[in-house]
Amino acid sequence: xxxxxxxxxxxxxLIVEFPFTRSLGPVQSAFxxxxxxxxxxxxxxxxxxxxxxxxxxxxxxxxxLRELVEVAPxxxxxxxxxxxxxxxxxxxxTPFAWVLVRLxxxxxxxxxxxxAPGPDAVRTGMRVRIRWxxxxxxxxxxxxxxxxxxxxxxxxxxxxAEGPQATTTTPHDGAFAEPVTGIVAPAxxxxxxSPGRAQTAYLGALAEHRTVGERCPSCRKVYxxxxxxxxxxxxxxxxxxxxxxxxxxxxxCIVNIKAAHTANLDLEVPYVxxxxxxxxxxxxxxxxxxxxxxxxxxxxxxVEPVWTEGGRYPDHYRPTxxxxxEYDTYKELL
Length: 334
Ligand SMILES: [Zn+2]
Known about the structure:
Elements lengths: L11 E12 L1 H12 L3 E5 L5 E2 L16 E4 L2 E10 L12 E8 L6 E5 L12 E6 L10 E6 L21 E2 L10 E12 L2 H11 L4 E5 L6 E2 L15 E5 L3 E9 L15 E8 L6 E5 L12 E5 L9 E4 L7 H4 L4
Antiparallel strand pairs: 1-11, 2-3, 2-4, 4-10, 5-6, 5-8, 6-7, 8-9, 12-13, 12-14, 15-16, 15-18, 16-17, 18-19
């Protein structure tokens, strides 16, 4: 028996990003507006300790928290991790430490960046202070980073565990002119995607304008696109089966809303999006129906794919002109 060489599996970089807009509520609004004014606000919890950053509800009792206090712009590093290779949009462009800093007066620690020459210059217990951003807008980045205090300020030898702390805080009513009420937080995932063995074969066949599924050895169903395993039997599907190209519309919807931000879906509405069971497949895939008025599309309509130059998927499916499929032939695929 010879070992089969592993099949070539596709890989591609993928980036998913979107701006996430959220309102802040009274406590976070005061916190971020405070940062804009170079003031760090915490909130007093029911046991008298101070949380920075502040939250609206007590994590232990779920009681509503509204008593804001100002804490100091100096604090103590409670733990850290060195970041030798900063990524785009991180707080500093040069290597820095991620630190948890317990600001003087606070009972909890705040995550931020510490500008330090190297990992040997960072210690648990070291004293640090806020370096404010030159331009502040009401965002956590109004704290540009932390920086070490003067060398003659001694470390805190035993960093106390989180909890109540004898505090140097000043009551604050949280009122500022023109408070920040919302933020836009950019969310971004930057990763390498591998579709695995089954989908690699599927995509490879699509490049030749063929559609290839996989058959379950147990229930004999043919899955398109293949997932590598039968979702019913739980066994690996290895038997490749070419399906289509023709198929039957099993269900459909009429789209009346134009996609606002999707350049590659710049279609005139209304149009029809359908589930299509390709001949030989036991799972319907979806595609747009063209070449027929939207209000003439129906269940059982026989369709075939239309490819455009360079397209990786069929651009749409159009009627073949065959008689409609009998309901019994596709009723299990709805
Ligand atoms: Zn099966």
